[in-house]
Design goal:
alpha/beta; Rossmann fold
Length: about 220
């Protein structure tokens, strides 16, 4: 028997990262955060002053990319050329470009390689926007974690305030609406609900309750 794959997809702000990590910890699987893979490559492109519109230059960087990922119970660690770059990946420079970089087919192909390599080594909970549709259409279990625009906006606004940002609720909501539109209309890796996914809506639910619901589904469906 091979390793098991649980795919958790969903829109921006639905809580995928937090909930996927907690679910993985509860069932003893490795949590794979695909967004950090794209961020790692974005950082490498910035570091090399690559024009992301120059496909040949991007391909050259990817062909020589010395990037690997390590895992422990708490986090995914990105190692670029022997250096732990995990803490650098949330900088404004990376955040500003990562969405655009993630639309480049060659970048998606490279991340696809990493995703499949990891799935051959561990039982995984992998979160993203196209895991159950494109990356692992034959995943053992697919969850689509959803939440209303209003709920995701409230969460985003609260987080922004906690981080000391000066921003309005309307700005956060408009940003989420725009992100949803972009994600659903991407040429590669568009956000879609897999036909065989179980939809879990987290509106009016605590993180703990949502995690419990998903763990119950996993135990029922996968008998673990």
């Amino acid at each position: 028997m091979g390793f098991k794959i649980i795919a958790i997809d969903g829109p921006a702000g639905s809580g995928k990262s937090t909930i996927s990590r907690l679910v993985a910890n509860r069932i003893g699987f490795v949590y794979v955060k695909t967004g950090e893979m794209f961020r790692s490559i974005t950082y490498m492109l910035i570091k090399n002053s690559v024009d992301i519109e120059d496909v040949e230059a991007v391909k050259k960087v990817l062909s020589n990319l010395d990037l690997r990922f390590e895992y422990n119970k708490e986090q995914q660690i990105s190692i670029l050329e022997g250096e732990n770059i995990t803490k650098i990946l949330t900088t404004k420079e990376v955040t500003k470009l990562v969405s655009q970089v993630s639309t480049i087919k060659e970048v998606r192909d490279k991340v696809f390689e990493y995703e499949h390599s990891i799935a051959k080594q561990y039982d995984i909970v992998m979160e993203g926007r196209d895991i159950g549709t494109v990356v692992f259409p034959n995943a053992d279990l697919k969850i689509f974690l959803d939440a209303s625009v209003e709920e995701r906006s409230k969460r985003g606004y609260a987080q922004a305030l906690d981080e000391g940002q000066i921003v309005s609720y309307e700005e956060i909501m408009n940003s989420i609406i725009l992100r949803d539109e972009l994600d659903r209309n991407k040429k590669y890796g568009a956000l879609k609900i897999p036909d065989d996914a179980i939809v879990v809506n987290s509106d009016n639910s605590t993180i703990e309750n949502t995690v419990n619901r998903i763990v119950d589904i996993i135990k029922e469906k996968l008998k673990i």
